[in-house]
């Protein structure tokens, strides 16, 4: 039930999102202008995802990839990556921890310069150094009158010693951590506690167009542009003009918000970037109307379906019966069973008596189809007579059918007088006896004998249900391998009929044997 509800909510969200966003494909051209190899990483915040999540770019190499419609996620560059002898892939900065070239749904670990996008009919994009800096990055949209943004200065050259990430051998600065990741005491939660610090101002001075801390409300940090393509360049150089177009940043009317339960730095979680919120005034007037109508209709449909399924589920719980009993009813030839309530209705609460016996009275009844019946109501029960008695009887019948003789045959020699005794003493003895008459199907005979032995177990609880026997005969189940070939009634010596006449009630064990 919970899975059905979850799917309905997801369906409502996806359909509404498609109405609002439209289906537009965006192309990203990613270029490496660094003097060294860069391994870009791609992380998708929600489906649909990119066809690749990580690849390598040599110096001056570019790669073009298409983004799915309405994609939200981020790009970053991994640097100083190596692969050890066991095939484990790792990087000094931006490592996604997958152990492979592909990040496979993992985000980059700080420090890493991030480019964040939310694509739709109106795109939103930003560059962030909230979680540190590892290499210069520039985002240039192809649309006219759309602003470029990025962090093109080399922060590593000026990074404070306490924030530096260096290579193990050369001691070269290859990254600059955030104050939270490096010192810990600067980590914070919520806009009330997360304020600009000396270190965030350091990043802001070198990268004025980038986010410098989680609640950075600067107007020149998040930009919007009608659906277009983008050029992402690592190490673009300071000669590139980043303000060649008229900027269109998000103003303070919306600002930048983030989840209050998220720390301002540390390992980058899936939603670690400051959340990009579109300006309400820039959306078309009909978009909220469509979203409301579609969402409302889907919510009503979901509610109706949930109510119907809930009612059906409750009814199935109220009428649930024993599973094995249900299986027995499906076996052809099984006698009809009646509930006590059915018998009360048929006999008018056991009103008309037909006769009386030692263990109870017999009452007249009429079924709904006008069939007359006689119902005996027992007043004295001396043991537990269950369906397992019928299973025992079936075992005797099956043994007699396989051996083509009665269970007790006085005409046979003493060693073959009792089939149960033959089965108990040694199964091969029965097979030798049968070999005189049957020359084939030996394996099938052995299986039938095992089924019979299972039905004839002394302990009624060890005997199978008839539904299980049917499944074994049909080849759907196997016989219990833990059978006990010891049958107490096989050891009882034959006696005269008079010896059974007694006024004493029979023991409970007899009631579990064949009637």
Automatic annotation (TrEMBL):
Entries under InterPro entries matching the protein: Kinase-like_dom_sf, Osmotin/thaumatin-like_sf, Protein_kinase_ATP_BS, Thaumatin, Thaumatin_CS
Keywords, comma-separated and alphabetical: ATP-binding, Membrane, Nucleotide-binding, Signal, Transmembrane, Transmembrane helix
Question: Which Gene3D superfamilies does its entry note?
Answer: Phosphorylase Kinase, domain 1 (3.30.200.20), Thaumatin (2.60.110.10), Transferase(Phosphotransferase) domain 1 (1.10.510.10)
For the region Disordered, what residue ranges are annotated?
A: 246-278, 496-515
Q: Which PROSITE patterns match?
A: PROTEIN_KINASE_ATP, THAUMATIN_1, THAUMATIN_2
Spell out the Polar residues composition-biased ranges: 246-264
Q: Which residues form the signal peptide?
A: 1-25
Q: Which residues bind ATP?
A: 376
Q: Which Pfam families match?
A: Thaumatin (PF00314)
Enumerate the transmembrane spans.
289-309
Q: Write one Gene Ontology MF term.
A: ATP binding
Asked whether the UniProt record includes S-adenosyl-L-methionine among its keywords, one would answer no
Highest taxon in the source lineage: Eukaryota
Query: Which PANTHER family does the protein's record reference?
Result: OS03G0233200 PROTEIN
Q: Of which family is this protein a member?
A: Belongs to the thaumatin family.
The protein here is known as: Protein kinase domain-containing protein
What is the organism field in this record?
A: Salix purpurea (Purple osier willow)
């Amino acid at each position: 039930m919970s899975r059905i509800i979850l799917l309905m909510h997801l369906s409502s969200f996806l359909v509404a999102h498609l109405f609002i966003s439209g289906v537009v494909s965006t192309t990203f051209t990613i270029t490496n202008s660094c003097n060294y190899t860069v391994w870009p990483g791609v992380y998708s915040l929600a489906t649909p995802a990119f066809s690749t999540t990580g690849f390598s770019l040599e110096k001056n190499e570019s790669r073009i990839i298409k983004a799915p419609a309405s994609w939200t996620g981020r790009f970053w560059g991994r640097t100083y990556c190596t692969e050890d002898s066991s095939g484990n892939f790792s990087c000094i900065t931006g490592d996604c921890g997958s152990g492979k070239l592909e990040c496979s749904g993992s985000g980059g670990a700080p420090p890493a310069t991030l480019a964040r996008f939310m694509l739709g009919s109106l795109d939103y994009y930003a560059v962030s150094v909230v979680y540190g800096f590892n290499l210069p990055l520039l985002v240039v949209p192809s649309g006219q009158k759309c602003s470029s943004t990025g962090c093109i200065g080399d922060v590593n050259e000026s990074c404070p010693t306490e924030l530096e990430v260096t290579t193990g051998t050369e001691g070269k600065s290859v990254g600059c951590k955030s104050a939270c990741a490096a010192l810990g005491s600067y980590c914070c939660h919520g806009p009330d506690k997360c304020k600009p610090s000396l270190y965030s101002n350091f990043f802001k001075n070198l990268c004025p167009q980038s986010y410098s801390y989680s609640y950075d409300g600067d107007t020149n940090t998040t930009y919007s542009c009608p659906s277009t393509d983008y050029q992402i360049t690592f190490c673009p150089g300071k000669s590139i003009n980043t303000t060649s177009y008229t900027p269109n940043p998000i103003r303070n009317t919306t600002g930048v918000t983030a989840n209050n339960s998220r720390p301002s730095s540390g390992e980058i979680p899936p939603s670690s970037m400051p959340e990009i919120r579109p300006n309400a005034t820039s959306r078309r007037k009909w978009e909220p109307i469509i979203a409301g109508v579609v969402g409302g209709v889907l919510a009503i449909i979901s509610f109706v379906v949930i109510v119907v399924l809930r009612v059906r589920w409750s009814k199935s719980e109220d009428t649930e019966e024993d599973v094995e009993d249900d299986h027995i009813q499906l076996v052809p030839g099984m006698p009809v069973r009646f509930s006590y309530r059915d018998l009360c209705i048929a006999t008018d609460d056991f009103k008309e008596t037909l006769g009386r016996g030692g263990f109870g009275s017999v009452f007249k009844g009429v079924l709904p189809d006008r069939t007359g019946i006689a119902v005996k109501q027992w007043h004295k029960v001396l043991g537990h007579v269950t369906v397992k008695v019928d299973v025992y009887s079936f075992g005797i019948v099956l043994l007699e059918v396989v051996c083509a003789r009665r269970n007790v045959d006085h005409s046979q020699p003493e060693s073959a007088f009792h089939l149960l005794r033959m089965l108990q003493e040694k199964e091969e003895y029965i097979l030798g006896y049968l070999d005189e008459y049957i020359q084939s199907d030996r394996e099938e005979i052995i299986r039938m004998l095992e089924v019979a032995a299972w039905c004839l177990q002394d302990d009624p609880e060890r005997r199978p249900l008839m539904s299980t026997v049917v499944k074994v005969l049909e080849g759907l189940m196997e016989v219990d391998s833990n059978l006990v070939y010891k049958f107490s009634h096989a050891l009882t010596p034959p006696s005269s009929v008079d010896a059974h006449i007694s006024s004493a009630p029979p023991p409970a064990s007899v009631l579990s044997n064949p009637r």
